[in-house]
Amino acid sequence: MAYQISDECISCGACEAECPVSAISEGDGKYVIDADTCISCGACAGVCPVGAPSEQ
């Protein structure tokens, strides 16, 4: 299943830079993951300082 970013997101952008398939983009107040593009690799979760991305 694809990852999703929770409201804990602080919009630092670390996850976007780490995503190997460019599934993450800046949304309104937090970053968002395109579920159709996400390959569930977990790279975003590994770099997030607040643990906002999680597998849904």
Describe the structure.
This protein has 56 residues and is of the alpha+beta class. It starts with a strand and ends with a strand. Helix content is 18%, strand content 21%. The model has no long low-confidence stretch (mean pLDDT 97). It has a two-stranded antiparallel ribbon with strand order 1-4. It contains two helices and four strands.
Please specify the SSE layout and strand pairing.
Blueprint: E1 3-5, H1 14-18, E2 24-26, E3 31-33, H2 43-47, E4 53-55
Antiparallel strand pairs: 1-4, 2-3
Tally of DSSP helical segments: 2
- The chain-level structural class is alpha+beta
The total beta strand count reads 4
- The residue ranges in which pLDDT falls below 50 over 5 or more consecutive positions are none
From the spread of the alpha carbons, the general shape counts as: globular
Helix content: 10-25%
Largest sheet: 2 strands, antiparallel
N→C terminal distance: 6 Å
Strand order of the largest sheet: 1-4
The Cα radius of gyration reads 9 Å
Task: For this entry, give a set of tags.
21% strand, 4 strands, 2 helices
Concise synopsis of the structure shown:
By secondary structure, the protein is an alpha+beta fold. Helices cover 18% and strands 21% of the residues. Strand 2 and strand 3 (31-33) form a beta hairpin.
